[in-house]
Design brief:
binds zinc ion, about 625 residues, alpha+beta, 6-stranded mixed β-sheet, 6-stranded antiparallel β-sheet
């Protein structure tokens, strides 16, 4: 750094206040987190008469206005001598304090914390976890301020966060600005730690809760994922250390990405079996399964985000506005392409087989094709409207929305194969991601939808305008076969789940669930016989052809029917009894599989090997 820069830096530092937070949890069983926020200014700094404290309304990575301010209570403000300062709320998330020009003042408040998820806060007698965006206020106009966070942890609990420690101060951490502060969740408990290094950089898995996992295996496999992703992105480790915070609870699930950490939830006993039983869960009648591979896939997804979304940033995603929606058309890239890589990385790390990779992708294809909403909404529209659609789903969502994770992952696969085909194997999606990393992140630029398409065209060596118009901005049906042909593969829909020849079966077109003694309609698919002939979500089915029924009985009797047969369903809709006459439709009970074509060329075999083969790293 030159002298000039150092001076400029000093000036900048002096123009922003120093902000110091102390978080304590004197009575964990009451679920209260106590926050003290101290704001100090130097003698040369301008001091305003009034200041505004704001609580974020959402947290990056989870695109819903959550109004974290609703958990705030017992707010006070005082000057350095402890004298109360006047304050008033001016809207739901902002507190205006009359500081009267005080250079040193503080606010204190408490936050109710009784919801464990990767984006919220929980403190109880077992542990504390919080997301700083859901706990700490910022001083309006000073999101660029550095801050410190001091945690008063009850003995013998430890503190884990991705923030660097402040030298010489126990349980005190520092953040260069509020985007970094809000990006760093905190776990306080008697957690277990698994550690490893990659390229000399320390990584740790901090585990709170019990489960049926094998710690050594988890340590080794997570390390493989980290190594594979670092290589994929060019070999540079862009952080000083990395922390995985893992909560194991019977009902836990999900992950949230950060610059040098991630918060993960997984079912305590979801680590066995090792792998799925091979049944395509998108096939009719199948249900999803928790497995060790599912856990690894979650790790691979969240870890890949440290590049894709946290550093390779879509237009509107960082720096953030914490008070309202931040709109982007690129979540299909941020989430979908990350999901594609989660599977590809497991394959490259040798943690799943080629067949497992292909069958996982076939499942996603089938999920999409079972979603009527794919013809109603594009992935760009799905990304843009996530705040009011994807994060607020209802019974109509399957008919009006497309999942940008699933369709984005398919686009990742198809674009990867397209670039490999057009460049005759010289380039791949990896080159696109590395290009975005060096050409945008390294130059401190966010990328736009146009930049993303251009990056692909650069690697493919030709225009992809038609592809993006049809499948990204548009809602055209995918041509899976011609895309898969690049690697000598095709989509097969001729076999049923058990391997027998697929045949047309009677089809109602509704998802049903047995809840106690009630058989309820959970979802009705647009265009299906149930939808067209009047069955509604929420209906309770009492009888089939005048015989009392539950789900097992209904499934068994419908399996005996043929397409075109008539049945009666007696239902309660709200409190009213009625009977519907329904003509069943037909649907082939095929399970999607990706299989080799009969005669693949040398070139296709080469592309396949580079993509998925044991030595494939391109
Ligand atoms: Zn994600």
């Amino acid at each position: 750094m030159t002298t000039f820069c150092a001076e400029a830096q000093n000036e900048k530092q002096q123009s922003v206040p120093e902000i110091a937070f102390t978080v304590s949890l004197p009575k964990p069983h009451t679920h209260m987190l106590d926050v003290e926020m101290r704001v100090t200014r130097g003698v040369s700094q301008q001091v305003p008469k009034e200041e505004l404290l704001v609580m974020p309304a959402w947290t990056p990575g989870s695109y819903l206005i959550r109004e974290f301010e609703r958990h705030v209570q017992d707010f006070t403000a005082t000057d350095a001598s402890g004298q109360p300062l006047k304050w008033e709320k001016i809207n739901k998330d902002s507190w205006r304090i009359t500081t009267n020009g005080s250079r040193d003042w503080r606010a204190a408040y408490r936050v109710y914390a009784n919801e464990l998820s990767v984006r919220t806060n929980e403190v109880n007698s077992e542990h504390a976890f919080w997301n700083n965006a859901a706990l700490l206020m910022y001083l309006e106009g000073f999101l660029s301020s550095p801050s410190t966070l001091h945690v008063l942890a009850p003995q013998p609990w430890k503190v884990a966060t991705g923030l660097p420690s402040a030298p010489g101060q126990k349980n005190t951490f520092r953040a260069d600005n509020f985007d970094i502060l809000y990006d760093s969740p905190v776990e306080v408990s008697n957690f277990k730690t698994l550690s490893f290094e990659v390229k000399g950089v320390p990584h740790r898995i901090v585990i709170d809760g019990e489960g049926n996992y094998d710690p050594e295996k988890m340590r080794v496999d997570v390390k493989k994922i980290v190594e594979t992703e670092v290589e994929l992105m060019g070999g540079e480790v862009p952080y000083h250390d990395y922390t995985f915070i893992l909560h194991l609870r019977s009902n836990a699930g999900g992950g949230l990405e950060h610059l040098n950490s991630t918060a993960l939830g997984y079912p305590s006993f979801g680590f066995k079996p090792e792998r799925s039983d091979g049944v395509n869960s998108a096939a009719p009648g199948a249900s999803p399964q928790r497995t060790y591979q599912g856990f690894l896939s979650l790790v691979a997804h969240e870890f890949f985000h440290l590049w894709n979304v946290k550093r390779i940033r879509p237009d509107a995603l960082g720096p953030f506005d914490y008070t309202e929606e931040n709109y982007t058309r690129l979540l299909w890239v941020a989430e979908g392409i990350t999901d594609y890589y989660a599977r590809l990385v497991l394959r490259r790390a040798g943690l799943i087989s080629e067949n497992e990779f292909l069958s996982e992708n076939a499942k996603v294809f089938q999920n999409l094709q079972n979603t009527p909403g794919r013809l109603v909404m594009s992935v760009e529209e799905a990304s843009f409207d996530t705040w009011i659609k994807y994060y607020r789903q209802d019974e109509n969502s399957v008919n009006s929305q497309v999942d940008y994770y699933d369709k984005g992952a398919i686009l990742g696969l198809l674009l990867d194969l397209e670039v490999r085909r057009q460049s005759r194997g010289a380039k791949s999606l990896d080159d696109v991601m590395r290009y975005l990393y060096t050409g945008f992140y390294k130059k401190n630029r966010n990328y736009t939808p146009h930049d993303f398409q251009q990056a692909f065209e650069l690697m493919a060596g030709s225009s992809l305008e038609q592809f993006f118009a049809n499948y990204v901005r548009g809602r055209e049906e995918f041509d899976y076969d011609s895309a898969l042909a690049a690697a000598g593969l095709r989509l097969d829909k001729t076999a049923a789940t058990d391997g027998s020849k697929a045949v047309e079966k009677a089809y109602l077109g509704a998802d049903l669930a047995q809840e106690g003694d009630r058989l309820l309609v959970k979802k009705v698919y647009a265009g299906a016989p149930a939808y067209e002939q009047g069955l509604n979500t929420g209906d309770q089915i009492i009888a089939l052809n005048n015989t009392r029924t539950n789900k097992d009985f209904l499934d068994a009797r419908l399996a005996e029917k043929r397409p075109g047969d008539l049945v009666t369903l007696t239902i309660f809709r709200s409190d009213n009894l009625s009977t519907l006459l329904i003509k069943l439709g037909g649907r082939v009970n095929a399970v999607y599989r990706i299989v080799p074509v009969d005669n693949s060329t040398k070139e296709e075999k080469r592309i396949y090997q580079a993509w998925l083969g044991a030595s494939g790293t391109k």
